[in-house]
Amino acid sequence: MDKNISFTDKTGLHLEYSPQPASSYIPEWYKKMDSYTNKTGVPTDTGATGTIKKCMPVFDSINAGYIITTFVDIWVKYIPGQPSYYTWRDFEPVRFHRNAQVSTHFSNNKFDFPKLVNPWCIKTPQGYSTLFLPPMHRDNPISIFPAVVDTDKYTLNVEFPFMLTNLEFDGLIPAGTPIAQVIPFKRDNWKMNISEGDTKENINIGLSLRSKFYNVYKDKYRSKKQYK
Q1: Percentage helix, strand, coil for the chain under 3-state DSSP, each rounded to 5
Q2: 223 Cβ partners below 8 Å, 6+ apart?
Q3: Interatomic CA distance for residues 22 and 33, integer angstroms
Q4: Per-residue pLDDT tens for 78-132?
Q5: What does the alpha-carbon distance between residue 66 and residue 25 come to, in Å, rounded to a whole number?
Q6: Displacement of CA 67 from its chain's centroid (Å)
Q7: CA-CA distance, 150 to 130, in Å (whole number)?
Q8: Fewer CB within 10 Å: C terminus or N terminus of the chain?
C-alpha cells in the first residue's frame, strides 16, 4: 500500500518551484556517463567494465525520496569574511544562526551560519519520520546540515542551515536548484549484534555475485523503491 507524504506551501505565494520526486532531478554527470568503460560492455582480462552507472545502490540513492529546491534566485556576493545574499523577492530566503550556536561543530568557522528558509511544511503518516540531507551524488553550491525530523508530529516548515561548498563562491544560485533530499522512513527500534566469520548466507551471496559479470545485485537482491 502506498504511503502519502504531503508538502504544503506555508507562504501562500503559490510557489512555482514545488518539491518533486528525486527521479525528476537526475544529475547531468549521471546522464552523460556511459554504462561501460569500454563502450561495449565486453569484459576484459582485468574483469567487468561496468561504470558507476551500473551500480544500483548509487542509482537508488540518487532516486530516493523527494527534492526541495530554491524557490527564488539567490545572488551570492563574496566579501572577504562572509558572503552576502540578495534576492528580488520581499520574502527573505536566507537568515542566519549565530556562530556560537555551532562553535564546537565547526570550530574553524568564525562567522554566522546562513539558513535557507524552506516554505514547505511536510506531513508523513503516523510512525514515519523524515531524513533531510544534501542531494546525494550532486555537485551543488549549497550543502545543508543533515537532520531527522518526526514529521508525523512536527508539521511546521523545517529550515535548512547550510554552508557554501565553495566558501568564496560569487554568483547566482538559480531558482530551482536542488538543496535538500527528503526521505521518509518508518521508525523502528534496533539492536546491534556483532559476530565473527562469514555466515552461510553471505558465502552463498558471494558465490552468486561471481556467477555473472553484470546485474547480479539488480536481478537477485535489489528491491524496487517508488517515490511518486
Answers
A1: 15, 30, 55
A2: none
A3: 18
A4: 888 777 888 876 667 888 877 667 666 665 566 677 899 899 999 999 999 999 9
A5: 9
A6: 7
A7: 6
A8: N
Give the C-alpha separation, 195 to 177, whole Å. 44
Question: Which residue reads 568564525 in cell numbers?
Answer: 110
Residues 6+ away with beta carbon under 8 Å from 176 = 17, 69, 70
Length of the chain counted residue by residue: 228
Could you tell me which residues are beta bridge partners of residue 128?
A: 186
Q: How far is CA 195 from CA 106, 192, 198, 199, 227, in A?
A: 36, 10, 9, 9, 35
**pTM of the shown model:** 0.88
